[in-house]
Amino acid sequence: MYVNEMEENETVVHELRQIDLVPSHYKRPLISSPFFPRQREFVETDTYIPWSGYSSVDVFSSVEQEYFTIRNAASVFDLTPMVKYSVRGPDAEKYLDRLVTRDVKKIKPNRVAYTVWCNDAGHVIDDGTIFRLSATEFRVCTAERQLDWFLYSAIGFNVEVAEVTQDIAALALQGPTSCLVLRMLGLQGVELLKPFDIGHFTLHGYPLMVSRTGFTGDLGYELWMAPENAIAFWDALMIAGEGRGIRPIGYQALEMARIEAGFILPNVEFVSAEHTIRLNRDRSPFELGLDWLVDLKKGHFNGRRALLAEKEKGSRQRLVGIEIEGNKPAHHALIYSSADAEKQIGAVTSALWSPTCKRNIALAMLDAPYFDGKAEMWAEIYLHRELVWERRMCKCKIVERPFFAPERRRQTPAPDR
Amino acid sequence: MSTPINAKTFDCIVIGAGHNGLTSAAYLAKAGKSVLVLEAQHQVGGAAATRSFAPGFSVSSCAHLLHGLPEKLITELDLHKYGLQFAAESLPTYSLCAEGNPVRILNGAAHGNQLSEKDKAAYAAFIKKMNKFAAVMLHILNMVPPRLSLEEWSERINMLTVGWKVRSLGKRNMREFLRIIGMNMYDLLTEHFDNELLRGAIGMDAALGAEHGPRSPGTVLNYLYRLAGEVAAGKKGTAQPKGGMSNLSNALANAVKAAGGEIRTNTRVERIAVTDDRVSGVVLASGETITAGAVLSNADPETTLLKLLGAAHLDTGFVRKVHHVRNHGKAAKLHIALSGKPEFKGFKADAVPGRLIVSPSIDYLELSFNPSKYREVPREPSMEISIPTLSDPTLAPNGKHILSAIVQFVPYDLGADPTAARAALTENIISTLERYAPAIRSQIIALELLTPRDLEAEFGMSGGHWHHAALSFDQFFFTRPVPGAAQFETPLTGLYLCGAGAHPGGGVMGIAGRNAAKKLLSGGRYVRK
Asked: CB contacts < 8 Å between A and B, how many?
């Protein structure tokens, strides 16, 4: 490149920056969470994955240790990359009620609700959580970026929608000693928060929002703060958790807990209806086994008419929890109606040998009518053993979800261990 | 919803007494439905009405000539019996020439001493061929568009008839039809003619009501749409209702009433009422609720769906489509009160009235379009002029005249200084007119210019577009105005579109209104329940 050309380019970049079109990280596509300076001290494996534009830790030291921290102590997971939107205004409740499948009118201030939202055809675009902060203020956490859909949905509503992902730092503190750690931190009364409650605390002079929510199916909390307080909070949390087994965890350990809790993951259990290309790759909430999230009586919402029709006609398939014989995880296994693998009736979406349940579990999408569980089911599992592939046909059956559901996840006041 | 027990419930409420609303109402009432038409203005007609614009001067305030009122509509609704009268029929078209040598077009023939024999023959052959294509187009315009899923047999048969109509043109003509349908008018005209006045005038037929100049793809569609109307209109050709457009609208209103329908003017609908995810009637600005099994809206799709119904009753994807309907019109309306008869160059004193086209060449037409792309007004506008007082002196005081014109390619958004833009446009129009009628400036008593934004305000058309939704391939037939509402039914059970935004589109043809009524009466998806 010639010198003048470079100069010219720099001028263009400079001009663009003046109007804020060039983000400062254009030379580095992934940004770091405000907790990163502290996390880096813990990362032994140097494995990171991209998550919503952030560089996120995959494994700190060992997946097993991190997983058992979730189930036996207090795990700390950096939630900052989760996409967050602020929804506020006189019509905020009406707007969200039309947007999502659940009845938002029933969410009281300082409560959280998990929900999905659909397109016109009643197919799921994404899932996420709605935090009701007041009568007219909400925060919506989503798996993928939704601003386009959210803004189009705002036509005709007196509501302001803005992405606030970078304005909020967040950690998930999950595990049996998580409540104790927060009490040691000085959050008085935090044990009284019921599942899906939101509490507001002040710590060393800065505000901290605590919600009793999580992605592990265990006792746990999510902690929300301004990015400038992230480092101070991390340090205080680690001190409070000393002796209670506190440990930062990466994405892989969380994924194990997620499957045990039976939660679905976008792009694993379903592809967003806004992204699918092929016919019949969209999934409705009914097909994902999320009937309990769909309130057909609350009034009109996106996809309602299509979902009513599906309800009448019956779903083409359904996501179920299954248990497979043996101990080999059924990753990507096809499911057949007989051991001779003649007729495929579904496929596994997520699989795990559950260390806590000591069961071979999986989430699987089954075709109608096989999700009624009346017929035999066989999983075709491939094992890669020192470069040799082996195939096993393992009998499986539909079981209740969540696979792991400890009492403590629901107990209030929350137990200390 | 609280409704007084003795309140009357209608089978159908029609929002808006535009000519399409009245047409729907007339067909529904004739079929035995109880119908109520609600009109916000003090008179019926919407954009097909007559009103005063200067003391003693009355004019058709939006549409001013009937070129495509179907013969079938007049017969089926017996409109002559109900008062429809024409002050003039078979009006010729003149392509005005600054040198005073206009080209005259009538009944498939072009005349004028500057036309070559070759062009005269070419025109006769051209219009004969185009009329065949227009007949195919008319078949499409008169249809309830099939849904693309083609779930029902009737839809498959409908679709087949379209194919059959095109095929039955014969191999050569079918090929030609398919070749030109997506083309631009400029290329089509330069293929056929040498004479600029001829090209300019025919080009204007493709430009009227459009938002693109003749060099834009899809303008042949607009031309064939207009021509289909002319085929439907039959022998009367381009006609001028006696007393202006209100004559037609009043005749339609009389037909509605004679069939037992009710019409209430000065009655503004505030919103469409919904009960259990189904239309239940309307709520008036007065607060009164009127219940009905079905509501047909003559209002444009944006007004109907996003304002009167509201996005809360619709899905985001559908709202997104409605929101993106292109409906910014570029046709302005000009009314001038004249102290005497305007003298156009090349016309004898006793010249018959006609349609006067200011579009002396196809390039002129394109150049008059260009500024509108940049929110600027045309320096030399293209116009369709009518002097209605020549055949209907009752519209103006004795000896005085009216010039009514459609001025093409006036942008909806007049830029940073709309007042200055309007003043500049007025001057551009007058100086353009002076080229053809040199004394006209001194004859002006009063002048009214309605830009698309004014038309929007006066007639309640979002975007001020006379088609309510631009007439282009992406908003035509089974995607008009948007997929999900292209069969006159909307996603809300019982709510129908019957205005220009529905298939086939605008122009005073009444076809959209007739189609909507036909759909409802044939037992639409929702009525059948």
From this structure: 45
Report d(CA A331, CA B120) in Å as an integer.
78
* Residue from the list A94, A149, A305 with its beta carbon closest to the beta carbon of B316: A149
Which has the higher per-residue pLDDT, B156 or B126?
A: B126
| CB < 8 Å to B277, chain A | 300, 304-305
pLDDT reported for residue A23: 60
Q: ipTM beyond 0.85?
A: yes
Which chain B residues touch A119 with a CB distance below 8 Å? 315-317
pLDDT in tens, B430-445: 999 999 999 999 999 9
- The answer to whether residues A58 and A48 belong to one domain is yes
| Of the residues A166, A198, A216, the one at which a domain ends | A166
* Mean pLDDT confidence for A305-312: 96
Query: Is A120 a member of any domain?
Result: yes
- Reference B386, options B45, B67, B43, B99; nearest CA is B67
In this complex, which of B311, B313, B484 lies closest to A155 when CB atoms are compared?
A: B311
Using a CB-CB cut-off of 8 Å, the residues of chain A touching B311 are 98, 155-157
* Residues A206, A212, A213, A219, Cα dihedral to 10°: 120
Looking at chain B, the domain(s) classified CATH 3.30.519 span: 327-459
The contact set of B with A (CB < 8 A) is 277, 306, 310-320, 323, 484, 491
| pLDDT band (50, 70, 90) for residue B401 | very high
Please name which of A410, A411, A113, A56 lies closest in space to residue A255, comparing C-alpha atoms.
Answer: A56
- Considering only CB atoms, which chain A residues are within 8 Å of B323? 152, 155
Residue given tokens 């008419």 in the structure block: A305
| Peptide bond before residue A402 is cis, with ω within 30 degrees of 0 | yes
Q: Which residue has the higher pLDDT, A2 or B415?
A: B415
**Does residue A54 sit in the same domain as residue A203?**
yes
Q: What is the pLDDT of residue B529?
A: 33
List of residues 6+ apart from A270 with CB closer than 8 A: A124, A264, A282, A283, A288
Outline which parts of chain B fall under CATH 3.50.50.60. Answer: 9-49+61-87+241-326+466-521
Do the beta carbons of residue A142 and residue A150 sit within 8 Å?
no
Which of A94, A120, A157 minimises the CB distance to B315?
A120
> Which residue does chain A place closest to B309, by CA atoms?
A156
Strand-pair partners of A314: none
From the options 3.30.70, 1.10.10, 2.60.40, 3.30.519, give the CATH code of B327-459: 3.30.519
Residue A30 has pLDDT above 70, yes or no: yes
CA distance B477 to B487: 9
Say if CB A73 and CB A166 are below 8 A apart.
Answer: no
Residue A133's domain spans which residues? 83-166
Q: Which CATH number characterizes residue A127's domain?
A: 3.30.70.1400
Q: Are residues A172 and A256 in the same domain?
A: yes
Fill in the DSSP letter of residue A241. Answer: H
Question: Does any domain span residue A280?
Answer: no
By C-alpha distance, which of B504, B509, B455 is closest to B519? B504
Decide: residue A258, CB within 10 A, 0-12 exposed, 13-18 middle, 19+ buried. buried
What's the CATH number for B9-49+61-87+241-326+466-521? 3.50.50.60
Q: Residues with Cβ < 8 Å from A313, sequence gap 6 or more?
A: none
Instruction: Write down the residue that tokens 């928060």 correspond to.
Output: A193
Q: Which residues of B touch A305 (CB under 8 A)?
A: 277, 315, 491
